[in-house]
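Exercise: predict the structure of this protein bound to nicotinamide-adenine-dinucleotide.
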Amino acid sequence: MKVGFIGLGNMGAPMAANLAKAGHTVTGFDVAGATAEGVQIADSAAAAATGADIVITMLPNGAILRDVADQIIPAMSPGAVFLDCSTVDVDSARAVAEQAQAAGLSALDAPVSGGVGGAAGGTLTFMVGGDEAGFAKAAPLFEVMGQKAVHCGPSGNGQAAKICNNMILGVTMIATCEAFALADKLGLDRQAMFDVVSTSSGYSWSMNAYCPAPGVGPKSPADNGYQPGFAAELMLKDLGLAQQAAEAADADTPMGARALALYKRFVEDEDGRGKDFSAMLPRFEKRGHD
Ligand code: NAD
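Solution:
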């Protein structure tokens, strides 16, 4: 397929390179002049999108996505697919999809989980909103870039799935970290804590697959000085999108709101920036009862 790829950052560059390696013709563009292996670089977003069967965007936020959509939608051929893989607010995803559909394009919002490692290894999970026909056309590309693509319903539902998942993740990571810090103060050995909780009703992905305690459970960023992994500021972004959506939809999400406040403080006022989001454990370790 002829693929346009806009946004060749930490995630976009390896995703585009994997598509090129699989034999697709990939033309890319990034405002910062970034490149990717096997990808031909165009001199504008519109030029990268011209004549493409599918244009993929992997951008920082909804405002930038809307701006790029204004540039590339007029350049795309009717019947082509606009596939946004960025994590953005549900409203921007739906607005861009509407604009694309009005121009005769298929539109998909397909945020990912799996991080930079998943992007490089082609093992991302895609959560996809949009029409069935577009999903079918994009399926071979999802197969190259990831291991799983779940069609979640109409436009915006991919973003909805992503922020709901990450709201659960932020809340359970905080709960797991504060419980470890409490266990320390009660004299409970961390290995014993892991052995019990990981096989009891407190288990979760945060405990079982990404244990925030160094030397305990499977290998995780905790074993690497809390180098990300999934950076605390990315978790902060996703929790902010979840609260923005909750407000717009009039949903009551008190734990999501508390998680947002804690990660905001951790990243902006404490030493969380640049650390993995599981570094909440050393944060709680240092603190007393609030
Ligand atoms: P990044 O900042 O490394 O990459 C974004 C790229 O977009 C940059 O290279 C930037 O120059 C480019 N860009 C910005 N404005 C542009 C424009 N107008 N035209 C063309 N290019 C433009 O970010 P990333 O880590 O690659 O993340 C991309 C998206 O994926 C974000 O929405 C992020 O939330 C999401 N995401 C990231 C991760 C992760 O672990 N990094 C995991 C899941 C989802």
